[in-house]
Write a structure and sequence with these properties.
Layout lengths: L4 E4 L7 H14 L3 E4 L12 H13 L3 E3 L7 E5 L7 E5 L6 H15 L4 E7 L9 H14 L4 E7 L8 E7 L9 E2 L6 E9 L3 H17 L4 E8 L4 E9 L5 E6 L6 H17 L7 H12 L5 E5 L4 H13 L4 E4 L6 E5 L1
Parallel strand pairs: 1-2, 5-6, 9-14, 10-11
Antiparallel strand pairs: 2-4, 3-4, 6-8, 7-8, 10-12, 12-13, 14-16, 15-16
Length: 343
Amino acid sequence: MASMVEIDGSEGEGGGQVLRTSLALSLLTGRPFHLRNVRARRKKPGLQPQHLMSVRAAAKVGRAHVQGDCLGSLNLVFEPGEVSAGSYRFDIGTAGSTSLVLHTLYLPLALRAKAPSHLTLVGGTHVLASPCFHFLQTTWRAHLEGMGLPIELKLVRPGFYPRGGGIVEATVHPCSRLKALHIGKRGKAFIRGFSIVAGLPEDIARRTARRAIQRLKAKRLSSEITIESWPGGPGAGLGLVLETEPIPVLFFGLGERGKPADKVADEAVDQVLEYLEGGEAAVDCHSADQIVLPLALATGSSSFQVSEVTQHLLTNIAVIKQFVERNVVCEGDEGQAGIVRIA
C-alpha cells in the first residue's frame, strides 16, 4: 500500500474542507491518510453528523477501512479500496448539508467507477455555511460540464435547518478525463432571482423580493425576482443569479427563525454587490475552492481569475499538494482578487 499521508486538520481554515478533499483524493490516488485535529478550528471540533456521513459514504463507495469514524472524533485513519459504481442512499439524519457529502463522492465515482452511479442524499438542502442545492444546479454543475464531467441533479424535497429531511438525487457518469479550463473575466450580467417560502406565509417572500429589488435598483442594477412557495419547511430564502458568461453565478440568502425578511434580502444582495465591485473575475469565491480540485486532476494546465482569495481556497490547495504532484499556485492576497494557476 502507498505511504500514509499525514494531515493536521488545525492548519489553514481548520474545518470540514480538509476532510472532504482528503477523502476524495484518497479514493482517487489510492493513498491512505491520517487526519489529526479534525475540524480543530470550529466551535464544535471533531466529526459532526454531516462529516461522519461523508466518511462513511466514502468508505462504502470505496470499500475503505476506517478508524475513528464516530461523532466527535478528532483523529481519523482512512485506507481506501476500489471505487465501485452503484445506487447509494445516504441519510445524514440531521439538517447537515447534502451538498458537502456530494462534493466528497462525485470525483471518485466519475473518475474511478466504470458505470453511472445514482446517489440519494437525505438531509439539508438549504442550510448555513454550505452551498445550497440551487448553487450546485446553476453554478457548480456548469463548471463541471465545462471540464467534461456531466452530473444530473434533482431536488426531490427541500430541507431546511433544523428539521432537515430534504432529498437530493444525483447521477454521476463515468469520465475518462477532465478537461483543463482557462477562465478570465466575466461578461455583462443580468440578475434574475427567486424568493421562496416553505410552510410560511407568501407575504414573507414578497417582502424579501421587494427589498432586494429596491437595493439593486439603487445600484442601477435591474432584476426580475419570482415568488415561489415550496412544500415542506418551515424555511425561506432568496436566490439571486447573475446571468453572465462564461458561467452563471448564484448567491443565496437564507431565512432563519426570527430573521427579518429585509435581512435575508440584504444577505443575498450584499454578496452580489461584493462580487460585482471586486473586479471582473468570472469565478466567485465559493466556486474557487470547489473547482480547484477537479482542475488539479485535469489534463493540461488551467487558470482562473477569482473575485476573492479565501482561506478555504488556500487550504484546499495545500491539501491537494499532499496527494498529487501538481504545481498549483494562487497569486493574490487573502481577501483580494487573485489568479489560480495549475501547471
